[in-house]
Design goal:
four-stranded antiparallel beta sheet; globular; binds adenosine-5'-triphosphate; binds magnesium ion
Amino acid sequence: MSQPILSLSAVRVAYGRIEAVRGVDLAVGRGAFVGIIGSNGAGKTSLMRAISGVVRPAGGTITFDGEDVTGRKSHEMVARGLAMVPEGRMVFSDQSVRDNLMLGAYTRIGRDDAGVADDLEKVLGLFPRLAERIDQVAGTLSGGEQQMLAIARGLLSRPKLLVIDELSLGLAPKILDLLFPVLTALNRDGLSILLVEQMASYALAVTERTYVMENGRVILEGASTDVAVDPRVLDAYLGRRGAA
Ligand SMILES: Nc1ncnc2c1ncn2[C@@H]1O[C@H](COP(=O)(O)OP(=O)(O)OP(=O)(O)O)[C@@H](O)[C@H]1O
Ligand SMILES: [Mg+2]
């Protein structure tokens, strides 16, 4: 197997005495679509913060694109090709859609303006709703449109790996039916994707491999088709309860 784009070994994240991530091993192959599911407080966002350089891991090793990047800052991770769509999206609500998108391209502006213009056209093709609202202030977008903007902004850094923390948060199924196929198409075009997702059924349907996190640890991993029929996952995340 070729070297993964991302691999984690024994990664730990702590906030003072709270250990949010307690030794996680994880790999995303080049061109793969990998999911992480798990209940509230399992440590998923903390793990994403460590990967994207927002927090420094308390232990372990993070390798990205063949290099040890443990403890590197987020701006450096962006420059290396990691795009993060954070939980809650974090769009700049008082700036236009266009300005938000251009912030995603900041590492390339002045160096690759033609490439940025090309990519802008491509992402607006993926998300026509953003094209129609390009001069609108981002705070006036719907939640689903803001998620599109956050993804599009990430794509404008021309990433090797796109990391999304909670795609579905607060969004209606109708919007999710628009968003998930875009991710599938991007992955089919070669983009590696790591998706943290609270809606386990959606994540298991689109990803190839899934990790299940509980209490800061990976308790199960495997092909998504296998994870989807694991009794622990059926009980805890897919709503197979006594009443069903
Ligand atoms: N900045 C912080 N300071 C202190 N504790 C934190 C901080 N951020 C997260 N935690 C704690 O770390 C643990 C893991 O939280 P985290 O947000 O990583 O979980 P999560 O799996 O993303 O949950 P959710 O599904 O609700 O998004 C929780 O116990 C949380 O209270
Ligand atoms: Mg989270």
